Amino acid sequence: MDSTVQSAVLSDTATQRSAALKVFVLANPTASHFRPDDIKRFVKELERNDVEVEVKLTRRVGEIADTCASSELTADVVVIAGGDGSVNEAAQALQERSLKPALAILPFGTANVLAAEIGLPKEPEKLAELILKKSVRKLTHSLANGRPFYTCASAGFDAEVVHVLPYRLKRQLGKFAFFIKAIHLGLTRRSSQFRVRVNNSSHDCAMVLAIKGKYYAGKNLITPEGSVFERGYHLVLIKKDNLGFLCSLLLRLWLRRFHSAPDVEIIKAEQAYIESYRSAAVQIDGEPFGGTPLVLESTSSTLPVIAPRAD
Predict the structure, then answer these.
(1) How deeply is 311 buried, as exposed, middle or buried, from its count of CB atoms within 10 A (0-12, 13-18, 19+)?
(2) DSSP letters of 239-283?
(3) Does the pLDDT of residue 18 top 70, yes or no?
(4) How many other C-beta atoms lie within 10 A of the C-beta of residue 114?
(5) Window from 86-95, 119-128, 183-192 with minimum mean pLDDT
(6) What Cα–Cα distance (Å) separates residue 194 from each residue in 90, 133, 205, 267, 292?
(7) Closest Cα to residue 307, out of 131, 82, 151, 88?
(8) How far is residue 274's CA from residue 279's CA, in Å, rounded to a whole number?
(9) Taking 90 as the threshold, does the pLDDT of residue 34 lie above it?
(10) What is the DSSP letter of 147?
């Protein structure tokens, strides 16, 4: 081969290698339903296509946020192998970067609501294919007392369950742990009362949810018109919170008829203020987050996320 041609080929090859897709996998081994084999299958598929992959297992609380915020992070795609809490932590940190790598989710954990919202496939190889195809969409979020939420923020009964649920029980029993704790709490708690100010009007209710997308507590349809790719959220105002009524709502949720339930009002919103007659628990994306009053706001900020493209 002519030396000039050979030099050109070697130069092109070096450029291709330096421009190779870089994927950083940040895995939370304490997440419920953690599956190391899924990570291995995912990495194998990427490496088979000459993708540069690095895997890191977290060892402490806050490590996901610290890693995603670090200036040493140079990946094109950050993959979170964990539950909704881990994904929220990563998304918040990535949101603050000037150059944002795309976020990808290898769903473990209890509910994986965001993975359901963006339509992620369950097979690790198919997630790898989406990354190889550079299938990216713009993920939106709203703010609850200044903190981003990507799926749900709420005040009242479900937030109380999140606050009192032991992490060990959640990891051992998954969604069933929430059910057990909810029954116990429902038999002993005092009812909540909220005043919600939204769209120049006031509403009284016993429980309030701010839903970014369509689903709640897994792939349970609650607001059919919602989308995590659009600005704003839906307020779900529940007028009663006694155990019998909440059980009936749970049944409607399973039957995908929640949006037509009596004593439930759903309002499209971009700003809302929630106050309570006594301090009430708040949760954000399945994690405890202080208490009321609660200010909910929309933003125009977006984060690139690996997801199937819209039809």
Answers:
(1) exposed
(2) S---HHHHHHHHHHHHTT-GGG-TTEEEEEESEEEEEESS--EEE
(3) no
(4) 28
(5) 183-192
(6) 31, 47, 5, 15, 9
(7) 131
(8) 11
(9) no
(10) E
CATH topology of domain 147-299: Tumour Suppressor Smad4 (2.60.200)
> Which residues have a Cβ under 8 Å from the Cβ of 1 and sit 6 or more positions away?
9
213 neighbors 117 (Cβ within 8 angstroms): yes
Answer for the pair 105, 261: CB distance below 8 angstroms, yes or no.
no
Query: How many angstroms separate the CA atoms of 101 and 131, rounded?
Result: 12
Q: List, in sequence order, the alpha helices (H) in the chain.
A: 3-18, 36-48, 63-69, 84-95, 113-117, 124-132, 157-164, 167-173, 175-188, 243-254
Segments making up each domain of the chain, as ranges: 3-134, 147-299
Q: Which of 274, 271, 252, 256 is nearest to 207 (CA)?
A: 274
Q: What is the DSSP letter of 180?
A: H
What pLDDT, on a 0 to 100 scale, did the predictor assign at position 8? 39
Q: Calculate what percentage of the chain has a pLDDT beyond 70.
A: 92
* Contacts of residue 252, Cβ cutoff 8 Å, sequence gap at least 6: 258, 260, 261
Q: Which CATH number fits domain 3-134: 3.40.50.10330, 2.130.10.10, 3.40.50.2000, 3.30.1510.10?
A: 3.40.50.10330
Residue 6 tokens read as: 């050979």
User: What stretch of H or E contains 104?
Assistant: strand 102-107
User: Taking residues 82-93, what's their average pLDDT?
Assistant: 91
pTM of the model: 0.86
Helix (H, G, I), strand (E, B) or coil at 208: strand
Q: What is the mean pLDDT of residues 266-292?
A: 94
